[in-house]
Amino acid sequence: MIWKQRPIGVRLLSPIIVLASLTCVLALDTYAADRNARIPRRTQIVVTPDSIDLHSVRDTRQLLVTGILTDGSEIDLTHLAEYSSNTSACDVTETGLVQVRGQGSGALMVRIGHRRMAIDVNVELAEVEQPVSFKHEIVPLLSLNGCSDIRCHGAPSGKGGFRLSLWGSDESFDYEQLVRDAFGRRTNAVDPDNSLVLQKPLARVSHIGGQRFSEESLTATLLRTWQEQGLVNDVDATSVKSLSVTPGERVLHAPATTQQLVVSAEFEDGTSVDVTQLVAFSSSDLALATVEAGGKVTFSQQGEVAILCRYMGKMVSARMMHIAEPSRDYEWTNPEPSNFVDEHVYAKLEQLHITPSVVCTD
Hints:
- By secondary structure, the chain is α+β, with helices and mostly antiparallel strands.
- The protein folds into 4 domains: 22-123, Immunoglobulin-like (Sandwich), CATH 2.60.40; 134-228, no CATH class; 240-323, Immunoglobulins (Immunoglobulin-like), CATH 2.60.40.10; 330-362, no CATH class.
- It has helices spanning 134-144, 171-179, 196-199, 218-228, 340-351, and strands at 22-27, 42-48, 51-54, 60-62, 64-68, 74-76, 82-85, 90-92, 97-100, 104-112, 115-123, 240-246, 249-253, 258-260, 262-267, 272-274, 280-283, 289-291, 296-299, 303-311, 314-323.
- The protein has a 4-stranded antiparallel beta sheet with strand order 1-2-5-6, with no helix packed on it.
- It starts with 21 loop residues before the first strand and ends in an 11-residue tail after the last helix.
């Protein structure tokens, strides 16, 4: 961690303890979706991961910046922070996504207000780059873009004569459908840009599903590269043992409305990989909250949702709640519960600043 400057009148707390994450205490004036929103000035900031090692040109890491208030509540600052890199080995986007650009080492700078923190990053590329993985990358990306959804080619009878396994549940079947079915017309190792697997979802030719991704997207890039590399079939590669999502649970108090998620996959060979960019996210209630590819959750109104994260046949969910500011005349009436069900109902209503209805007379 690097402290660049300290505003007059702000006293740093000591000692600063670094455990699993990078932490610091600093003064903040703004946060989250609204840069003009105020939060308590003395806020602990946690940036994870605290160091990064990358080994492939396709490796990515999603940074997560969290503010911990004096009452212990947490807020997401990932999309408020400003990021920069002092090395040509990698760069970091405005959303905190770290991407490889070459071999080397250096530091990534995370800035919030007048404070800056440094995260060590090291990129050691193999002499021979691993080819794009059909099992670990192509199949999940087709699921992420809805291609293998029940409403599209994942339907029992497929769509337009093309069928995929539901959500990529059978990689061997999907490989046969993409590479060998229909006389191999869907893929083209000689000229990938003329393959149907790119032409249709890019809407270059008629496609009932419309455009599914852009020319510059990760999906288009990897589909193109996979074909150029000879349509490598690695369906016997190691499988995912489990998924984990961070944070697994979060309560957002107004004016905060957004939360960045990070998903990691633990494989059967013991490796752990950040797969946030390959995960298919979905919200249990789109009227309350939406979730973008890449894991940014945005609430439009008060309520509670579950965000489902799917990758390679595994699923994990994060529970998200947004609590709006209570009305000026709000006052909790502290009703007497009649049974244990009432206890849980009243606890949730109090948390959401909702006054319970009076007991009926019948």
